[in-house]
Structures are given as C-alpha cells and as structure tokens.
Amino acid sequence: MIEILIVLVKIILALVWFLTLTLYLTWVERKESAVIQDRIGANRASILGLRLIGLFQPFADAIKMIFKEDFTPSFSKKFLHNLAPFLSFFFVAITIIAIPFGDVVHLAGRAIKLQIFDANVGLLFVLAMLSLGIYGILISGWSSNNRFTILGGLRGTAQLISYEVAFGLSLIGLIMVYPSLQLSQIVHFQGELIFGFLPKWGILLQPLGFMIFIVAALAETKRVPFDLPEGESEIIGFFTEYSGLKWGLFMMTDFMEIIIISCLVTSLFFGGWQVPWLTADGFHFPWGGSWLMPHWLVIIFQVTAFNLKVFFFCWLQVLIRWTYPRYRYDQLMDLGWKLLIPLSLVNIVGTGIVMSI
Amino acid sequence: MIKALEYFVEIIRGSIITARHFVVNIFFHILKVLGIKTKRKGAVTIQYPEEKKELAFRHRSLHRLLKRENGRPRCVACMLCATVCPSECIYVEAAEDPEEPEIQKYPAKFIIDLSRCCFCGFCVEACPEDALRMDTGQIELARYSRQDLIYDLEELTK
Q1: Which residues are B105's β-sheet partners?
Q2: A38 lies within 8 A of chain B by CB
Q3: Which end of chain B is less crowded, N or C, counting CB atoms within 10 A of the terminal residue's CB?
Q4: Residue B119 sits in which domain range?
Q5: Residues B7-25: pLDDT tens digits?
Q6: What's the confidence (pLDDT) of residue A51?
Q7: Does A36 map to a domain?
Q8: Are residues B23 and B68 in the same domain?
Q9: Are residues B20 and B69 in the same domain?
Q10: What ipTM, to 2 d.p.?
Q11: CATH code, domain with B101
C-alpha cells in the first residue's frame, strides 16, 4: 500500500516539475531571445498591476490557448487528427519516469529512489519513446489531408529517422565505457574519479560521442537549426491545420523534448546528480580536506546539482535556437548520413581500441 | 576536411557571440535591478507608453494653422496646399473678409482629413504665408471612428 503511495507521490512530483519547467521554458525562450537581441521581451502580462518581468506570461498564453476555437477541418480524418497531438505529447511526457533526479533517499527505514521507474533498460526505454514521437508528426501531417502538412510530416519523419541512427550510435561508446543501460547505474559510475581527482563524467571519456549526441539531439527536438518539419514562416509544417490547445500540445512537446534532452545529456555526459567529490557522506576533496554532511543535505546538493545542470542545457539549447539559421534539406541529410553516422562509428571503434588497451 | 573544421569553428564562434550578448546584457539588467545607474543599458528598448522618445527637430506631426496678431488665421485661402496635397485630404473654402480689405480672402472652411493624410509635409512647404505648420508634436492620432479624424478650422487653430 505505502509502496503505491510513494510511487504516486513520485509521479505527481515529477510531472509537476516537468510541466512547470515546460511552462517556464516558454518564458525563458522569450526572455533569452530578447536579451540576446538587446531587447527586453514580453513583460506586460500582469496580475493586479504586478508584472514581475513577465513571469505571468505563460499563464496568459495558456488561457489564450484554452479559449481559442479548437478547429477541426471538415476534410481531415477526424479521429487521427485528434489523436496525433496526444500521441506526440504522451511519448515525450512518459520519458520523465526513467530520469534519475537524485540518489537513494533513506527515509524512516525505507530506501526511496529519486526516480520513478528504474528499469535495467532505462536508456533504451527513453530512446524508444523519443522515437515513437515520430508517429505524432506523421499522423498529424497525414490526417490533416493537406498537401503541405503531409510534406511537412514526411520531411519530419525522414529527418528524425535519419538522425535516430546517429542518436543511438553515439551512445554505444558510452554504454561500452559504463557497462550498463540502467540510467541510475550510469550516473553512479560517473561518481568515480580518474587519476584521483577528475570526476569520471561522460564528457571526459566520450567527447566525440557527446558532440554527435548533442547535434543529433538538437535534430530530434525539431528546433531551429533543424526545424524543417515545422518551418514556422517559410516552409509550411505538419501542424498547420491545428489550432487552440492541440496546437499548444505540439508546442509543449517541443519544449518538453528540450527538457528531456537536457536531462539525458546531464545524466549521460555530465554526471547526472553527481557533484564532483561528493560521496554519500559528504565532500572528500582530492587535496585531502573533507566536509562531512548529514544525509538530507547530500540529497539536496544532488537534486540541486541535477536541476542546475538541466537548466544550463535548456539555456544552451535556447541559445542555439536563437543563433543559427535553418539547414537546407540536403545539407541536413548530408550532415546526418555523411558526417554524424561515420563519426559515431569511428567513435565506437576508437572506444573499443582504447578500452582493449 | 579542413573546410569542415573551419565551418565548425565558425559555428562555435557564432554561439559565443550570442552568449556574449546574453551575458553582457544580463549583467547590465542586474545592475539596473540593484539600482546601480550605468550609462550603458541592457536593452535598447524604449518602453513606449511609459517612456517616450524625444521627437526630432524636423519631425512632422499633427498640423496647426497659425494666427495673425489680431487673432485671424494667417491663411489667405490661396489653395496651394490643397493643390499640392498628394492624397487630396485638404479642403479649403475661400471667402471674402470684409474686416481686412488688404488681405481680401480668408478660409471659411479649412478641413484636413487625417485618415487620408500621409504626413509628407508638402502643404507646409507650399504655403506662401507660413500659415500651416506640422510641429505640434502630437503623433498619437488613433481614433475610434473616421469622423473624429476630420479636423476643421477650429481644431487646427487651437
């Protein structure tokens, strides 16, 4: 009974964390793009004259989207048309259950993992669910029964499938180094030290794998350097026929993908919840000093470290989105098939050679 | 291969430029929040309804008709402004002025339809009496109906 309650609380907490961060990532996107371009950004949404640098903007957006007309074109395939945004949303939202937020908490004689579902194939689970998100795109493009949307859907599918290969291959080197597919295990291995002082983070062991992974992951999120499926202004994308909250679900999917990619990059390459030299009983510095801490403080340090790393990668992805122009379609395919996949194969071979030595 | 490497370096440089903009602007924003006044600002934005930019010396805004010392309009109803107006928004009706025989004519009606005016300023240049100027500084001319945008003699001499 209490086990089920614990799991329920964890699910609710994780979803609240995820959706709040999604909501405020729209605000971060607006503000960060504004600051990059020497502007101020949306700051007019207010409650009782209280503006707080536009922090209420996401709520204003949500209210607007809820009350907009939810228009379904008469020529669309109704059932699939309604299903597509939910598919797209669901497959991203469910990946949060495999992300480790922190180490095991010992509370009242129980060991509670700060992770909802610690599967021994957690990494494969996340990759599979992210790949299934393609169905949302393809079905939305196809069921709208509109030439432009089906072309957008096909572009999206081709792009995501070709980047899926590099996305998966770039992680094989990592799986070879940390011999596990369990995300919590991978994070645990990153707590060890190389040469006694460097944390054994994935970025140090797999720099090439990290580069390939981040480019493929950016392509997976379908945002600006790789936003061919949508092409907001010029090439018409797959959710042209959607309005209101269903359109909002597609936008939310984009932002949730950013967060999931940030969580993955953090967990796989930047030590997850590991803080350098922090073990279960406190800091043990390589130069000899140590700072012992109670259990709860260690957990707070770990969760804060995880959150800060995730925020940093969300920030970085928004920065990338507001820096680069869009790839042309053939350049996109060239980059995926001719550069990233050979490089990821080289990475696997190189990792194997180094490991066997 | 070397070309691809150069391309990669340029990509990194691009993101460093945007990151630099972000960091520098955030620094000045934080200084402003802390109440420290700096010459440079975090953003070039002028938050319009609250703060307004000073109009340029040569700006063109709402028209005004100038008056003589005795309070009569300076306009002699020569029709040059109505003739030169490219959007044909000025309507002048001339009448004889019995009080001032030297000048003879005065505008009985002088109507500018601001919903058509393109603020080119040709009427001001054409005026031989320097009776019409566009220097009131009023640029917020939005109205709820077209009728309100038709300005007559009284409103223009105000």
Answers
A1: B96
A2: yes
A3: N
A4: 64-157
A5: 889 989 999 999 999 999 9
A6: 85
A7: no
A8: no
A9: no
A10: 0.86
A11: 3.30.70.3270
